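Feature request, filed as a ticket because there's no other form

It would be nice if the structure record came with a short human-readable summary line next to the tokens. Right now we just get the raw output. Example of a typical job, pasted below so the devs can see what we mean:
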Amino acid sequence: MEEMAMSTDFENTAIEENGTPDEHVDEHVNEAPEKKQRKKPTLWWILGSVVVSAIALALIFTLIPKAQANAAKYDDAQARYKAGDYDGALEAFAGLGSYKDANDRALELRYMQATAMLNANDYAAAIEAFGALGDYKDAPAMAFEAQYRQAQARLEVGDYESALNDFNALGDYKDAQSAAQDIRSLETHYNEAEAMLNDRDYTGAAEAFDALGDYKDAPDCALEARYLQAEQLLAAGDYDGALEIFAALGDYKTAQSSAKELRDLEKAYWQAEVLLGAGYYVDAAEAFAALGDYKDSANRAKEVLASMPTPTPVPTATPTPSTTPRPDSTPKPSATPKPSATPKPTSSFGYYSDSSRVDLNDWTVTPRVFFVTLTNCTSLSIRYKIAPPSGDADDISHHLTNRDFYVYVCTDKGNWKRVGTFTSGNKDEWVSATITFDAINVTKVACAPTTRLGGTIYGSYRASLEITAAVYQQ
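Raw output as currently delivered:
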């Protein structure tokens, strides 16, 4: 009984846990349709797999050749780089996009290209190239450097306005601000010089434009200021000052022709002096009068006529009375011969002008020798000036001014002869002298101090000599 009870309990327990047999049959009957429904998506999965595989295969067959092509292009770019074909290498690396380090290599080549532009002084292109590199390496600093060099180059060729714009754009880079200030200062001084020119302060304007160097058209303005200064001196009667400036202006405007006119006037003036020294008062007065208002020519003409000696009247012979016969034995006096006329100078006057630097020796001064060609010369009218160049020691002027100088002439035989003496004036002051001597053929004229300078001097001075020679017939 107990066993039957236990069996019944077990069966009941089994039925509770697993259900009745009928229930299990029902469950299997219900599960059959569900299993059939799960098998249907398998076809779609297979089709999807086929599509994905096809795409994968397509990608594989597409990407592999492209990768191989990129690798070939990369190798080609490297080969171009090694061969020095940087432009070709840049183009190749840039075409590879993000492949490997192609972007970095392209940036490196662009940097090299910008540096080459800078070294070739192609500053505008270098500025643009470095600017396009952004923050790559020191590209921003190099862009500033390119613009700085461009400003300096523009400054050297006189494009001051563009240079000023560049320096201003550079801010505090290097000395850009001080360079910009220098240009602004030059412009200020230029305006001041122009104001002097407009106010007819030609001396000050010329000096101001000279101080500006090559700024803008300052050299041309300085020439114009000096030209106007010479004309101003000429109008004021300072002929020597005007001649000196005109002669120094070279071919500027009419400077040379003006200088020639003044030299011709000066030559005629000293020819008149020579005539006067030779005793030809009337000829000298006419020569001075012909010069018009040149220097003191009008007054000199009057002075010459006033100083002309009155000729000694020839006494009238006492008539012999006709009634008183002369004895035949008295010899008839021979007529007194007339004195031969003083030879007049020929029309061949020599005029020589020279100016050059002369070195000073220890204790003495090297004579300044001027080469001339004068035939049958009997008189020299000379003008002499000592003008130490700027920067020489002041004691040079002190030792050379207001001193006695000998005048020497060298004959065509090669012999030197001292023919006269004159006293030099102050620095930059012309002195004049007329020296007469026996007729000789002169090939050189020299001037030198009569005594040593009395001290040790080193340096140099500029001696100018103008000679007007009267040539007489023997």
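Something like this underneath would help us a lot:
The mean pLDDT is 75.
The CA atoms of residues 18 and 24 lie 8 Å apart.
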